[in-house]
Design brief:
This protein has one domain (15-258): Glycerol uptake facilitator protein (Up-down Bundle). Helix content is 73%, strand content 0%. It has helices at residues 3-9, 13-61, 79-104, 110-115, 121-145, 162-182, 189-204, 214-224, 232-258. Helix 2 packs parallel to helix 5 (121-145) and helix 6 (162-182) runs antiparallel to helix 7. The radius of gyration is 24 Å and the shape is globular. It is a multi-pass membrane protein.
């Protein structure tokens, strides 16, 4: 056998390296497309959710002479407005979760999904950015689309302290987060998530505005201005997400130990 024939029978390391390089390039291209799709899904989904919810809130608050849920610290809450706002948020979230959950996976509770390792840190960062941008865009869109000043900002009722408002936001957020974490994926899950937000809003919108996510409060605050206690709408939901994530992890650990 000649030297030339012997070399022809040897494996081609150059071709193999080129093949691996092509695989890496395709994988990288696929990853970039997946992340861009997830970002756009979270951006559009959050924008649609908040735009519809903000519109309903704007209508409810401007339905009477006062755009507050109560006239003073001693007044009874306006139950009709509370129901209208809570229902608008719940239904809007259910619809948009059903549309975009399989695209972005954020579901409006990014911190909890990251804490429970359901999404990577880079997906969490881009999801948070998308939600904040969507919150600002939705607030500006509602201001431009509907007549009158923007009245959808989250603020504390005169009857509740900042500390109580902080822990109320944490509590209702934990309810929503547990709903998302504990339920298995299926066609009915968006409905349960919507109902969970509806109940959470019913128990909080009168006292805190029912934020449950910084994006919901941050967007309108950019337009109308920030309150001195705006930080509770960041810390409260994060605390709630942490508590719910801990409960979720504990339940799954106990289940594994039983087996």
């Amino acid at each position: 056998m000649s030297v030339k024939d012997h070399e022809a029978d040897l494996p081609s390391h150059g071709a193999s390296a080129e093949h691996h390089s092509e695989d890496r390039r395709r994988q990288r291209h696929h990853t970039i497309r997946t992340e861009i799709t997830a970002f756009l899904g979270e951006l559009i989904g959050t924008f649609m959710f908040l735009s519809l919810a903000f519109s309903g809130t704007q209508i409810a608050l401007n339905a009477t002479d006062t755009n507050d849920l109560t006239a003073s610290a001693n007044s009874m809450p306006n139950v009709e407005k509370l129901l209208y706002i809570s229902f608008t948020f719940g239904v809007s979230l259910a619809i948009n979760v059903g549309i975009f959950a399989d695209v972005s996976g954020g579901k409006f509770v990014t911190a909890a999904l990251w804490l429970t390792r359901k999404i990577h840190w880079h997906r969490a960062v881009q999801t948070i950015v998308a939600q904040l941008l969507a919150g600002m865009a939705a607030a500006g869109f509602v201001l431009a689309l509907l007549p009158g000043p923007l009245t959808i900002e989250t603020k504390l009722d005169a009857s509740i302290s900042i500390t109580r408002g902080l822990f109320l936001e944490a509590f209702v957020t934990s309810q929503l987060v547990l709903t998302i974490l504990m339920l298995e994926a299926g066609p009915s899950k968006p409905i349960y998530i919507g109902f969970s937000l509806f109940v959470a809003e019913m128990g909080s919108v009168h006292f805190t505005g029912g934020s449950l996510n910084p994006a919901r409060s941050f967007g309108p605050a950019v337009v109308v201005g920030f309150t001195s206690y705006h930080w509770i709408y960041w810390l409260g939901p994060f605390l709630g997400a942490g508590v719910a994530s801990g409960a979720y992890a504990l339940i799954h650990w106990v289940r594994r130990e039983k087996r």
